[in-house]
Amino acid sequence: MSVQIQSLTRHAPNASRKMLDDVSLSIEDGAFVALVGPSGAGKTTLLRTIAGLDGPYEGTVLVDGRTLAGRPMRERRIGFVFQNYALFRHMTVARNIAFGLDVLPRRERPDRGAIAGRVAELLELIQLPMLGDAYPDQLSGGQRQRVALARALATKPGLLLLDEPFGALDPIVRRQIRRWLRGLHDQLGLTTVLVTHDHDEALEVADRLVVMQNGRIVQEAPAEMLDTAPATPFVMEFLGEALEFSGRIVDGWFLPDDSNVLSFHVGGGVDDGLVTALLRPYETRLVAGEGRGRAIPLAGGSGGLRRLKVELGTREVEILLVTDQVGLFGRDHVALDIGRARLFRDDRALQHISLRPPEPGHGKQRHNGTVTDSV
Ligand SMILES: Nc1ncnc2c1ncn2[C@@H]1O[C@H](COP(=O)(O)OP(=O)(O)OP(=O)(O)O)[C@@H](O)[C@H]1O
Questions:
Q1: Do 297 and 189 share a structural domain?
Q2: Fewer CB near the last or first residue (10 Å), C or N of the chain?
């Protein structure tokens, strides 16, 4: 099932504040989309609006090309799972799963045998075939979460809306269940929208991320694209630790304010002026024999990366460096190469720079008018 949202705005009840502010989003049939962003960004509000649970709003929300208004819940083919999975404690797992079918009007309700068959099928699907007679209190958190998913799937929805469904689980179970969910999504041909705070979770499970902030969509893109070409500094920082360097563009070069950071060529067509450069700590490199910086190894680091403190003179930054640069640790007279930085002006990316392919000879840096090879 597809979802089309056009210019959606929602105000907080009895307030002029906008919970959603001119949101437009298109989710194609079969997509797995994650809504991410800080607390209060509007993720839950957007999800509930897609489900037709709340109103009123301005704009258009179409599910499979039709508005939900006036369509009874059971015709909408939408499954919902919330963080507090709220299974009925006095009902067995099987009765919980069957609930959505049991409450259908008589003429639409499958007969008892068909419901029992569907429940058995779903118990297999969630890999808990023996637990139909158990009660929720007898299950682990991860098992309960799978039952909640089975309950949402009982009426064969085409669209699955998940609001922080794994929030209460420990990290290991959380990782297992999200992989399982992704498999289920593919197997059943669902369209899934997942709200999560956790960008790692979103990156692992979803095809596309929608980053929200203050009721607006800041950027929507496949995960890799968000990291290579974040639209704003907020997106860059939301996705992981980032180092910030201020500077200026002059004649196609980025000239950093820190004297022990190397300038780099950004290509033509960029207006001169102030910019901010952001990059990941593991995207930096050290250049020996240039500048007056000092690199000091720190404890920690993983995956073949060592953590270092680099004293730049006016400030210090912590970077991650591949261990084969070990010869530089503890050396004076180093400079920092930040040629992989994304550049921003007025809080917006200079996209043509961020998306530029690596230039041949990357590593040739000009510093104080000279060109050196970086390590
Ligand atoms: N019933 C309500 N009345 C007034 N304001 C509300 C109501 N529900 C949500 N809001 C406000 O709308 C904004 C968006 O809230 P929402 O719950 O959608 O954010 P969220 O991104 O899902 O946050 P979280 O990650 O903390 O769940 C917030 O500023 C919140 O305070």
A1: no
A2: C
Please give the residue that has the higher pLDDT: either 31 or 74: 31
Residue nearest to atom 7 of ligand 1 (CA): 12
Q: Mark whether 148 and 295 lie in a shared domain.
A: no
Domain count of the fold of the chain: 2
Residue 253 falls inside a structural domain:
yes
- Convert the pLDDT of each residue in 297-340 to its tens digit: 888 777 788 889 999 988 999 999 887 776 666 678 889 999 99
pLDDT average, residue stretch 248-254: 94
Long-range contacts from 115-122, C-beta under 8 angstroms, 24+ separation: 118/154, 119/94, 119/154, 122/97, 122/150, 122/153, 122/154
- C-beta 37 within 6 A of ligand 1: yes
What ipTM was reported for this prediction? 0.94
Q: What is the CA(249)–ligand 1 centre distance, in A? A: 40
Query: Which domain range does residue 265 map to?
Result: 241-373
Among 199, 229, 259, the domain boundary falls at 229
Classify burial at 274, counting beta carbons within 10 Å of its beta carbon; exposed 0-12, middle 13-18, buried 19 or more.
exposed
Assess whether 91 and 63 both reside in one domain: yes
Looking at residue 351, what is its pLDDT?
62
234 in a structural domain: no
Cβ atoms within 10 Å, residue 120: 14
For the stretch 125-173, pLDDT in tens is 888 899 999 999 999 888 888 899 899 888 889 999 999 888 777 788 7
The predicted pLDDT at position 119 comes to 95
Lowest mean pLDDT among 27-41, 112-126, 297-311: 297-311
**At 319, which amino acid appears?**
I
Within this chain, do residues 219 and 272 fall inside the same structural domain, yes or no?
no
Closest ligand 1 atom, CA of 37? 21
44 lines ligand 1 (CB under 6 A): yes
Query: Does any domain span residue 236?
Result: no
DSSP 46-99: HHHHHTT-S---EEEEEETTEE-TT--HHHH-EEEE-SS----TTS-HHHHHHH
Residue 100 identity (one-letter amino acid): G
Structure tokens at 91: 């009902």
